[in-house]
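Researcher: Here's a chain I'd like modeled. Treat it as a single chain, no partners, no ligands.
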Amino acid sequence: MAGRLLVLVALLDEAAVILIVVGGAAYMAERLGLASPLEAAVMVSPIALFLAVAAAKAVEAMGRKPSVGPDALEGLKGRVVEVREGGRVVVEIEGELWRGVLLRGSVRPGDVVVVRGSRGLLLLVEPGDG
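Model: Modeled as a single isolated chain. Structure tokens:
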């Protein structure tokens, strides 16, 4: 429900911007001596179209899974490089080293773990299938 409300607010915001642009164009049409507000609307329609497409792309992007950072690693497998005290580990995932904490079980260097989430830049991992 919150996602739909966010989309509605984004679209209403976009509609307000388009109205301001068209209203400004109508005002400028009068100041510039154009024959009608229709000419002004035609003049600004590419801007309004651009703003509408930009809003649609922004709303689409809000629904996508993150593609960078620790949140993007959820579900990926990695190898344990180092085991530290208190369930802390260093994990290699796609060639990068990440600090992590085990949610359950125990691991040794070389074991496979699966990322289940993150807390800041700390990965939450659990033992996975090799």
